[in-house]
Amino acid sequence: MDAKVLIESFAEFARSKNVDRPTMIRILEDVFRAMIRKKFETDENFDVTINADKGDLEIFRIREIVDDNSEDIWDFDKISLTDARKIEPDFEIGEEVYEKIELEEFGRRAVQMARQTLIQKIKDLEKDILFNKYEELVGEVVTAEVYQILSREVLLIDGEGNELILPKGEQIPKDRFRKGDTVKAIVHKVDMMNGNPKIILSRTSPVFLERLFENEVPEVYDGLITIVKIVREPGERAKVAVESYDDRIDPVGACVGMKGSRIHAIVRELQNENIDVINYTENLELYVSRALSPAKVSSISVNEGSKRISVFLKPDQVSLAIGKGGYNIKLASKLVGYEIDVFRELNENEEEDVDLVEFADEIDAWIIDELKKTGLDTAKSVLALTKEDLVRRTELEEETIEEIFRILRQEFEQ
């Protein structure tokens, strides 16, 4: 393979990978200089000129002419007068000899290795370009097409044919994909695994929801409305705290849109995830009340030391505060940064009840705490539910729940 064919084939391959001309020339020169070093031990006195467009390559070895008896005759950049005059008969001592080196002089095997090295360097460069491109896109929404569905992940391809990965854990539980589907997600992280960029997407990240708000709500994109915090239970429920420094803008109304037009587009993208948009305030008690929406709070007690908040509600509001699967109270706690305990307010005509704390000698403290997290703070509030209700609301075993029922019923039988 001559130099023209080698360079032209490499240049065509490089252009197909969108490699710019200066980078292409640099790679070519690096490879040819490596060939020179292998054959001549150094490339310091070599001049390499490449014209990638025409496929031209010129390699010149530059040496200074010295007397045949000179002590410097063995230096890499020196040549004896006798040897110089074999190249050009009228050379004199002190002049420089520019000796052209043809590619064929390196041998067929060396040229073939150079070709493989050039292709590998472009592939490595392509991987670096891809890694850098997506590293800059971390936290941004991308759209890609599903091309393979595996048990632990979905593989997608972007517009340039690059492989992206959406792991099972980063998918909304209700997501169902088919080959050819177009999927929106954020670039969650980019890793280099064994020299190959691994691009991980996410649809469960709070950042994905934030980007969807930016896309659907111009005031958020323009910075007129600030998203203070987002907490999510992907596919089930999310709470978004927003605020605006412009009194003329209602941040909640702007995010929801006329007849819910803006929020509905986001809800559809998130597989009907229930989204509560809350007006942020530094007034902690008011913030907690808003966070527990749609429940109406009667009173609140804050314990700064333990970072716990006791919330008192009317009996018909307790289930609203807890929410389906306990998601409402869990997300409210995450949003305000405090552990929230829900307590029922007793009406005047309600029968006497017993606080669960009274059973601490028979029921483990952690079990009582688990029940209180779901708003069950008295014996009757627990007995009012079925075993199935408690299994769904808590992380307690059926046997444990049956034992709790036995202990509580025994109290009232006595």
Automatic annotation (TrEMBL):
Biological role = Participates in both transcription termination and antitermination.
Question: Where, per UniProt, does this protein localize?
Answer: Cytoplasm
Q: Which NCBIfam families does the entry mention?
A: NusA
* Keywords (A to Z) from UniProt: Cytoplasm, RNA-binding, Transcription, Transcription antitermination, Transcription regulation, Transcription termination
What are this entry's molecular-function GO terms? Answer: DNA-binding transcription factor activity; nucleotide binding; RNA binding
Domain called S1 motif: residue spans: 139-204
Keyword Chloroplast tagged: no
Q: Which organism is it from?
A: Algoriphagus kandeliae
Protein name per Swiss-Prot or TrEMBL: Transcription termination/antitermination protein NusA
A Pfam family cross-referenced in the UniProt record is NusA_N
